[in-house]
Design brief:
This protein is of the alpha/beta class and about 575 residues long. The protein has 23 helices and 17 strands. It starts with a helix and ends with a helix. It binds one DNA strand of 29 nucleotides through helix 2, helix 4, helix 6, helix 8 and helix 13.
DNA sequence: GCCGTTTTCGGCCCGACTGTTTTCAGTCG
């Protein structure tokens, strides 16, 4: 059972308690516990076997018992009892906006409604208005809500959102009065998917920006439009908000709308203990009632006596305690990255020539770029035969002689075969500057076989990096069934670097696993896995993911100079050859 | 149900909106 699965059980318990009208604090306790487990770096099974469940924040005696039950039996008898105590189907009503647990229960008890379809019919037949406190308007809203629910688009992958966001920002900046445009919400926190896009800014003439925004070519439909705020539906179906706010409270508003919700709740609780109350309008002294609006976000944290907490780690997973103790890590930044160690060219399945890739890398300030086209076994990606690989080396040599300011490294993304062997012979691997190992086939193997397979590959003395270690494709393919804890430990023992692949539909490792890898002492490479020159910019998502994993410059290998990198990569081979 | 350099009991984020209501409960982000 992994952390996400255990968290889901606790969230399910919370949902049923809500329907049952339990104390909201009891419900919150389960939700907080679920979040703790979801975001903590450690493996929940391991923590349990070491007997340290109660060390996890928001897990006390009672919830620890439920977690133990889940881990021991693969199910929670408490959840099963709860499920039997409520009519099935009633929780589905909660999906309809405007319907919460109280209303759902009344709809069931007084009208026997337990499906969304039954709810729709009841609203159309005007039976909802029989209920006390419900009227004509309520029925309309329910029907509207159901319609919205049926047409609502799923969360958008971050990469797709980024394209839209960049285009919108570029056009809004043409308004000469607009200032401080910033995207907040899950986009700013570099979550893997976003539900909607929330943009904020200041302007001396809000109306003109709002007009510009609502008339953009990307807008499909205007949902709401006022003088300082508008909501539109973009053509790709994602809801996008723009709000123009007063200069003097921009920082408070940014902080509030960046979230996460759990971070804000914890921040406000922390503030109360210091006699301060935080809201989107400022910070109020609860004794004097004086309120200070914050123009910049840093102010919010500094007034509370906290280190500035970067958006990527605002998850409610220990960042406030760390900030209070002045123990936040100094997160890696994009300029720390000196080169990209995972890229493709026309030689295999990329779109640009080696020279184009090299120049694009140099433009981005990099000093080195590893060319890592696919190995021969990956026919579908036009993997390089040994003969073509040697020809590619000649081209790399020629470019390295000719181009100034950037060095290409001879690399390969070598397929890890079903038996764990590598798709290039050792004598070839030995001649490479850098070898990446990747799984591209047989992804449905059982966990133990998958783990064995990867471990065997990691024992090859010439392998340097295990790339996209879980193989997930966000929204399309689950991670392989692999024991990451074991893989991370092996990486530390064997000197294998683990990758954070910045392709936005991969972001693999994810933040939580990256944080765990750091904790266990593994080295990380943050790469773009670019298949064309513009793809090098996917480094942004890789760095964002690294930051979500609390990683610092020193945890990441491609923040060092070329000389240091070569020493590091070579060191492993020498050690292994000596041994 | 969890938590504590003011507390082991008495707290538990903040504000806005909505609809139906004479003062507020429920819902949402």
């Amino acid at each position: 059972m992994n952390n996400e699965q255990v968290a889901e059980v606790l969230n399910d318990i919370a949902e049923i308690l809500e329907i049952k009208g339990e104390s909201k604090y009891r419900i919150r306790a389960y939700q907080q516990a679920a979040r703790s487990i979801e975001f903590m770096p450690e493996d929940i099974e391991e923590v349990y076997h070491e007997g340290h469940l109660d060390d996890i924040p928001y897990i006390g005696k009672s919830i620890a018992e439920k977690v133990a039950d889940v881990l021991e039996h693969g199910r929670a008898s408490y959840l099963e009892e709860l499920e039997e105590s409520i009519p099935p189907g009633i929780d589905s009503l909660l999906q309809v906006p405007g319907i919460g647990p109280k209303t759902a229960v009344r709809l069931y008890q007084e009208l026997g409604i337990d499906t969304i379809e039954a709810l729709r019919i009841a609203a159309e037949e005007h039976r909802i208005r029989q209920l006390k406190g419900m009227g004509e308007k309520s029925e309309e809203n329910i029907l509207k809500g159901i319609k919205w629910l049926q047409g609502k688009s799923p969360r958008l992958p971050l990469g797709a959102a980024a394209i839209l966001v960049e285009r919108i920002l570029e056009q809004l900046r043409r308004d000469p009065f607009v200032r401080n445009l910033v995207v907040v919400g899950s986009y700013r926190r570099v979550e893997t998917t976003v539900g909607d896009i929330d943009i904020m800014g200041t302007s001396d003439r809000p109306e003109t920006v709002i007009d510009l925004f609502t008339s953009l070519p990307d807008v499909d439909r205007i949902m709401a439009k006022g003088t300082t705020k508008a909501t539109v539906l973009a053509k790709n179906g994602v809801q996008t908000d723009l709000r123009i706010v007063p200069h003097e409270s921009l920082g408070s508003l940014m902080q509030h709308f960046t979230g996460s919700k759990e971070h804000n709740v914890q921040l406000r609780e922390f503030s109360l203990s210091k006699g301060l109350s935080v809201s989107e309008y400022g910070i109020t002294n609860t004794r004097t009632g004086w309120r200070i609006p914050c123009a910049v976000e840093e102010q919010v944290y500094s007034i509370l006596g906290l280190q500035y907490i970067p958006p990527e780690i605002r998850q409610g997973s220990g960042e406030i305690e760390a900030a209070a103790a002045v123990k936040l890590p100094e997160l890696v930044t994009q300029p720390d990255i000196r080169g990209d160690l995972h890229t493709h060219s026309k030689w295999s399945d990329g779109r640009n020539s080696l020279e184009e890739m090299a120049l694009a890398a140099r433009d981005r300030g990099y000093r080195y770029l590893a060319v890592t086209d696919h190995s021969p076994g990956l026919g579908i990606a036009h993997g390089l035969t040994l003969e073509r690989l040697r020809r590619q080396w000649r081209e790399i040599d020629e470019l390295n002689n000719r181009l100034k300011g950037i060095t290409l490294l001879k690399g390969s993304e070598v397929d890890i075969r079903a038996d764990g062997s590598l798709d290039l012979p050792d004598d070839i691997l030995q001649e490479l500057d850098i070898a990446l190992g990747a799984i591209h086939s047989g992804m449905n193997e059982s966990g133990s076989r998958m783990t064995e397979r990867v471990l065997r590959a990691m024992h090859n003395p010439y392998l340097n990096i295990l790339v996209h270690p879980t193989g997930r494709l966000i929204g399309r393919r689950s991670p392989y069934d692999i024991d990451l804890e074991t893989v991370i430990r092996a990486a530390v023992d064997l000197g294998i670097i683990l990758e954070i692949d910045g392709t936005p539909d991969r972001m693999d490792l994810d933040g939580r696993h990256a944080r765990r890898a750091k904790e266990l002492g593994a080295k990380i490479a943050v790469n773009s896995d670019a298949h064309q020159a513009s793809g090098l910019d996917n480094m942004h998502f890789g760095v964002g993911t690294a930051r979500r994993g609390w990683l610092e410059k020193k945890d990441i290998v491609n923040t060092v100079s070329l000389e240091e990198l070569r020493r590091f990569l070579f060191g492993r081979r020498q050690r292994n050859q000596a041994a």
